[in-house]
Design brief:
With 211 residues, the chain is an alpha+beta fold. It is built from six helices and eleven strands.
């Protein structure tokens, strides 16, 4: 979920100091967004962890995000159940157990925000991302984070902020903090593949935050 555009400065005068190493260089939102931009079609594995006071351990959900074209986002869950959510044209459809539910995104601001942010990020469209979020970047090219604070009142009434963590051009994790309830963590790409079934909360936090 997020949008990014970037400008990388290259070529300085010979008298200028050398460019810092990639690991030491500080980043801004534009640098991050430029490297996360991916034209459709794209796909990535995910491992989602949902906490609940009713559960001894967070619920672990595994699957894949797909973006077959610029206007479609698909979330395909493989375990512990099978479910496919497709967001397209202001509507969401959820297929599970041979049945399909359809509803307008106006009824689900979280999904609307997800589509807007993912679409903007993968398109490299910082202006579109900033229409939906106040953005703030921290860290270096080796370990960075990008905070998104919702502007939309409906989404802000449910979500405090969304923080992306990554290494270089790899988005490894998204943490969503709701106003009520437990933090939701989604590991992506290399972090998702490295997340063992028996990994404890500390190990998953390390994977998420690229430490």
């Amino acid at each position: 979920m997020l949008a990014l555009l970037a400008t990388t400065c290259a070529g300085a005068l010979s008298a200028a100091p050398p460019e810092p190493s990639a690991t030491a260089s500080a980043v801004d939102a534009s640098w991050i967004l430029a490297r996360l931009a991916r034209p459709a079609p794209t796909r990535t594995d995910f491992v989602e962890l949902r906490g609940s006071p009713l559960l001894k351990a967070p619920l672990r959900i595994e699957g894949e995000y797909r973006r077959p074209d610029d206007d479609t986002l698909v979330r395909a869950v493989r375990a512990p159940y099978v479910e496919t959510t497709t967001i397209r044209g202001g509507e969401a459809s959820i297929e599970r157990g041979g049945k399909t539910r359809r509803f307008s995104l106006s009824r689900a601001p979280e999904l609307q925000g997800l589509q807007a942010s993912f679409g903007a990020m993968l398109a490299g469209d910082r202006a579109e991302l900033e229409r939906h979020y106040v953005i703030d970047a921290e860290g270096t090219r080796a370990h960075w984070s990008l905070q998104l604070v919702p502007r939309d009142k409906a989404l802000a009434a449910k979500v405090r902020d969304i923080v992306l963590y990554g290494r270089g051009a790899e988005l490894r994790c998204i943490e969503t903090r709701p106003l009520k309830g437990d933090l939701q963590r989604t590991l992506l790409a290399g972090a998702a593949r490295a997340a063992r079934i028996d990994a404890d909360a500390s190990a998953l936090t390390t994977l998420c935050r690229a430490q």
